[in-house]
C-alpha cells in the first residue's frame, strides 16, 4: 500500500472542464465523468464507505462539477486538486449528516468553503508534475502516512495511536515528508 | 511535552487538508488560514498532494450512476424555483458581525462569522477577574471545546498547567510566553504537563481562539482552586 505510482496529471481534462464552463458541453461532461468518477469512487471506498454510499457521493461531486465548472481556476490548482477538495468537502458533509441522524443536533455552521483561495503556489503544470514525482519518491513510512491521512481521513494523533507510534515520531515524519515536497517545488521554480 | 510555537503547524494543516480535523480544530485552522499567508501556501500544497493522490488511485467501476443521471438531476434542479434561503437575510447577519467586531475591537475572520450572534450576547461571556473573559463557542464536539479568550493589555495570566492539548490562535494583539512573542495569526500548542503563565503584550488587548480537551487546564497559583472553578474550559 505504501509505494505510490507516479502518475502524470492528465492535461486533457482541463480542456473538458473549460468546455463545460464555456458552453455547457454535455459530451465534455460525459468524458470527464468517465475519467474521474471511478477514481472518486475508489477514493470514497478507501475511506471505508460502502459501494452504494460511495456512488451517491460521486454523483454529488459530479453534480457540483457541472454546476460550478466556471469556478475552476487552473491558475490556483490543478483539476484533480479541485476535484479532491470537492470530494473531501462532500465527505465531511456526509459525516455530519450521519452524526445528526445519530442525534447530535447542536450543529455549528462550520466552514462552508473551507479556506480562502490559496495563494497560487502551483501556477505551472511543471510544479504539479514535480510534486507528483516527489510524492512517488517518498520513503514508505512517509508515503503511508500521507495515504492514511488523505484516503482514510485519519488525524495525525489517530495514526499515532493506531500504529502505536509516539506522537513525536508521526509529527517528524510529516515534517520530513512536507519538507521534501517543498524542496521539490523550490527546485522547479 | 513542552510548549511549542509552530508556524505553520504542519500536522494540524495536514489533518485539515485531508478532511481529518475535528470540528473545533477545523474552525481554528480555517481561521488561521485567513490570517497567515504562509499557512495558505502550505495549505495549497497539501491540497495539491490530495489531488495527486486522487490521481494515483486505480479507478473502481461505477455501476449505478453515470453522466446522464447527473445531468438529469442538474436539469431537474434547474427547473425548480430557487428554494428560499434557510438562513437570515444577509443584512441581519452583517449587522451582528459588525456589532461583534466593534465589541471585540478587531475584524472577525470569515470562519467566525456564524458565531457573531453569540459573541454579542453579554451573558454568554464569563469573567475571569477584571482583566480577562472567555466565551465558549457553540461548536458541537464531544472531545473538544472552542473558546474565545480576551485579556487586557499588559496583564499576566495566572500560572496554569495543561493536562491535555491546548491549541491557541492569536486573533488580535500578542502575548509573551517565556521568551517567545506570539502574535496575530500565530498558533501556540501546549502539551501535557505544560505549566506556564503568559503575559499579554502591553501594546494592545489580546484576543485568542483556543481549542482544548475538556478539563485540560488547571490553575496552579495560590488562587488556583478559585480560577479552576471560574475557568471551566
Which short descriptors sum up this protein?
heterodimer, A: 189 residues, mainly alpha, Rna Polymerase Sigma Factor, Chain: A, Arc Repressor Mutant, subunit A, 2 domains, 8 helices, 67% helix, B: 233 residues, alpha+beta, Jelly Rolls, three-stranded antiparallel β-sheet
Task: Please describe what this structure looks like.
The complex is a heterodimer of chains A (189) and B (233). Chain A is mainly α. Chain A has two domains: 1-120, RNA polymerase sigma factor, region 2, helix turn helix motif (Rna Polymerase Sigma Factor, Chain: A), CATH 1.10.1740.10; 122-189, Orthogonal Bundle (Arc Repressor Mutant, subunit A), CATH 1.10.10.10. Chain A has helices at residues 12-23, 26-46, 51-67, 79-101, 125-136, 140-152, 156-162, 167-188. Residues 102-121 of chain A have low confidence and may be disordered. Chain A is flat. The longest helix of chain A is centred in the middle third of the chain and has 23 residues, at 79-101. Chain B has helices at residues 10-18, 23-35, 37-56, 67-79, 90-104, 116-119, 224-230; strands at 4-5, 126-127, 132-136, 145-151, 160-162, 166-172, 174-177, 180-183, 187-190, 194-196, 199-200, 206-212, 217-219. Chain B has a domain at 90-230: Sandwich (Jelly Rolls), CATH 2.60.120. The longest helix of chain B has 20 residues, at 37-56. With 233 residues, chain B is an alpha+beta fold. In chain B, strand 3 (132-136) and strand 4 form a beta hairpin. Chain B is built from seven helices and 13 strands. Helix content of chain B is 35%, strand content 23%. The mean pLDDT of chain B is 84. At the A-B interface, helix 2, helix 3, helix 4, helix 5 and helix 6 of A face helix 1, helix 2, helix 3 and helix 4 of B.
How would you briefly describe this protein structure?
Chain A has about 190 residues and is an all-alpha fold. In chain A, about 65% of the residues lie in helices and about 0% in strands.
